[in-house]
Amino acid sequence: MTTYFADRRPLDRNWLHRQWRHLRLWRRFFAQAVVRETHFRAHFVTTLLVGLVQLGLGIVPTLLLFGFTTEVHGWSRAEVIALVGVFQIVTGLIATFVAPNLNRMTTYLTEGELDGVLLRPVSSQFYLTLRWINVAELTNVASGIVVLVIGLVQAGIVPGVAQVAQAVVLLGCGLVLLTAVWSAMSFLAFWLQSVNPIGFVFLNLMEAGRYPLVFFPVAVRTFLTFAFPVAFATTFPVQALAGDLGWGPVAVGIGLAVVALLLVRLLWRRGLLTYSSASS
Amino acid sequence: MNAVTRNLRVVRRMTAAEIAQQSVYRGAWIIFMLANITVPIISLLIWRTALASGAELPVDERYVTTYFVLLGFVTMATSSWMAGFLATDIRMGKLSSWMVRPASLLVGFVANNVSEKFLKLFALVPMIGIVWWIFRDSMNIPADAGRWLLFAVSILLGAVLVFTIDILIASLAFWMDDVSALVQARVIVASVLSGAVVPLALMPSWSRGFVDHQPFRYTVSFPVEIVAGQLSGRELLAGLGFQLGYVVLFALIARVVWSAGIRAYSAVGA
Question: For residue A187, how far is the Cα from the chain centroid?
């Protein structure tokens, strides 16, 4: 019989094993989300329809703008449409994997749900940021890819393998950076208690990603590259696909993503120190 | 005491109570208003860039700047968010307890609307002031007080119009189980037709007649146009007439639907 005193195999033998275990766990979360979605088919259809309408609506300003001119700062209508496609992909991915979690941050802290998370043998930050997945939002990623392809074809851009690789890596960096920013804003809940409206500010600021970086004044460009790095998620990937970007910005993106992850990790640790359970 | 004065007193008391209650969330209001002006500012920068790079817009830089600076304020002042809540109250039978009270449930929603807008003003006006100051060299500022008075009247009428449209949509909950799709549809349609996304002046010329006369123009765009645009006296008068007409029309329809709904109402658990 095994008792608490018996020798047990440690949960993680080393750092790599620990990461692998979290990856397997995340795969389970995803499988569970897919099963869950099959129970709520109406939700799937509504999400798809709302996503399509919002995509159409999001293109309206761009179409109107290019009704008055053929190019703005070197960007043609087709290229901006490709950019709207990338924007749809990024917002779709965030809505699938990140938003369902960070929108719960206030409840985690004010209702004491974090207590239960801290007791589990997983990284609490991993669990809070990636536990819930909204599979239906992946339809927006699909429609985004369609729009991106339409834009690229209209613009006559045929990216090579290297360009696609650059774009994918940059988009990944953009996702990590944006998630880090939203996480950091949400973790302020440790000090401010209620942070529910933070999600609104984040999503509204994201809207800037619908337009190429050069459409903004220089000060705003800096802000959108380094402080609220939406440029890495939309403008840079499209420029990479068009072949206008070298590997330099890709390296900068990876560097920034690593720094952002470390900073958020630090903020989380610091926040946990101030956490005094809501239930005790 | 007649019904109108009594209702006004109820609204005043309930508004005061709501303000006291909502003041707890001061920080949240500031964050909300920050989100509220983000998209207008992004649009402002985009259209100014388009103008600067030689786009042939039907309006000038002053119009675009004034329009987007004021937009955040006007959308807040004329907004209404009750449809979902009212529909829930109808569906869950919360309406029952109001039917034995001396005032309508709608009075509570009026008080909620007025109190939240009052608190939002304190967060929003300083922010708009800062944006205004940044762009002060290219703003259209009408000198005569008459325009500002018209602006205020038009905002008030716009707020009433949006509120009645909301009552109308929520009233359908008397017959439908779920109106959230309708609410969503109204938000989406209104965001384009009210001029909250793109100034209606920039809509293509083939849509002119329809865009200029549909009701949503009078919920956001028209009040802003009074300050930003060069509307002639005639156009101002016609616009106000249309706005007043839509308010009366929608109020009548909402009243008919609401009272028909009350008669059809059979409460959950009653």
Answer: 16
Residue numbers in A near B203 (CB within 8 A): 64
User: Which amino acid is it at B197?
Assistant: V
pTM listed for this prediction: 0.88
A267 pLDDT more than 60: yes
Q: How far lies B77's CA from each of A35, B103, B163, B194, B243, in Å?
A: 44, 25, 11, 14, 16
What b-and-e string marks burial along B29-50, b requiring 16 or more CB atoms within 10 Å of the CB?
bbbbbbbbbbbbbbbbbbbbbb
Which residues on A lie below 8 Å from B45 (Cβ)?
A: 215-217, 220
CB nearest to A68's CB, from B28, B50, B192:
B50
Question: Residue A112 has what DSSP assignment?
Answer: S
The residue in chain B having the minimum alpha-carbon distance to the alpha carbon of residue A200 is B35
pLDDT digits (tens, 9 = 90+) for B201-256: 999 889 888 999 999 999 999 999 999 887 888 999 999 999 999 999 999 999 99
Nearest chain A residue to B187 by CA: give it. Answer: A54
What single letter denotes the amino acid at residue B102? P
Question: Are A66 and A77 within 8 A, CB to CB?
Answer: yes
Nearest Cα to Cα of residue B261 among B173, B143, B198, B147: B173
Note the pLDDT of residue B122: 92
Contact B197 A57 (CB under 8 A): yes
Which one, of A141, A196, A195, lies nearest residue A171 by Cα?
A141
Token pair listed for B140: 């259209």
3 state DSSP class of A132: coil
Question: Is-contact B61 B152, C-beta < 8 A?
Answer: no
Q: How far apart are CA A124 and CA A118, in angstroms?
A: 6
Highest-scoring range by mean pLDDT, A37-51, A160-174, A197-211, B12-26: A160-174
Q: Which two tokens stand for residue A261?
A: 């992850």
**Token digits of residue B244:** 């007043």
Contacts of A197 in chain B (CB under 8 A): 28, 31-32, 35
Q: Give the A-side interface with B, CB within 8 Å.
A: 46, 50, 53-54, 57, 60-61, 64-65, 67-69, 71-73, 192, 194, 196-198, 200-201, 203-205, 207-208, 211, 215-217, 220
Around Cβ B184, how many Cβ atoms within 10 Å? Answer: 15
| Contact residues for B53 (Cβ-Cβ < 8 A; gap 6+) | A69, A71, A72, A73
User: pLDDT per residue over A52-97, tens digit each?
Assistant: 988 888 888 898 999 898 888 889 999 999 999 999 999 999 999 9
ipTM at complex level: 0.85
